[in-house]
């Protein structure tokens, strides 16, 4: 690409979420990671490996022309880059905390590439690469791909292969006649659901107006319970957890049907499965009979409704916004759900927590970001436990805890066959 071009649909979704953020919140699209280094890695090895992955992926060398907020463009990937890797000497602060501090500084997308890195050393020995990226540059799947490639490049920086396609290539395909047809079908999916869905939402109170809370339930027993129900229902584990969560929300709302936003990874086509960019987009699904007692039956319905929704996961958010503007009574989603998927062989990106002892634990955190839906559950499955992080706006801790514990109890009860 020799001149600026349109954003891909995933990039455009990120841009719509962030373009109106005040200066004090412009760090919120950032994600932080602390990648442990194998023993004996030198500063030069780490710098060479980092340069190998940045050179390989166009998204990490891309800046953006956002002067017209309604028509952002991505610039051609820069050929030259600054591969300086500052070394931070550890002072007792943990690597995750240091990475979070690094993420608190926003990116200027017009002047900077959407990532930064530091090498953490302990008493002169490199221990971690602190890596921060803007969500427009890479989603969770892409970030883990970068992690895996970085580890390989530490020993074989020339062995990563040819430059893969980037977001500009994806955007070009999405603007072909076939791509435009798929976008029209996705928009039709939105129109049909917005026309059918009821206006249902979680309660709001004066005491919680304008507040955001975040709680995470860590549970070892929830993982085998979800797998047992999934096997009985012959659906995915994510569908089972979604069913339990939706039922908890529906009972708090006092409604049988909910409009729910699902996070679609959109990595279903082989060529784009491992492209480094942001491909995540919210896609709506209408879930009916959500308060039912039979979680197996609900999981089956959720599974098939979700698969239908994911077929329309790539959509033009600008067109969806225009559609909603033409429908003054268009309902807002009651909740949102994301079952985190990362490439095979990835390490968990969150601690399992006290649930390792077999006792579910609920912890509270200060949200790093409140971008996105009002009531958003992000589920992470590790080899030992299930963690459900709920970020909710205009909702108190008691209600947040009730939703999390209701989801957890639904999984355990269904697994017992009750």
From TrEMBL:
What SUPFAM superfamilies is this protein classified in?
CoA-dependent acyltransferases
Ranges for domain Condensation = 31-313
UniProt protein name = Condensation domain-containing protein
The source organism is Streptomyces albospinus
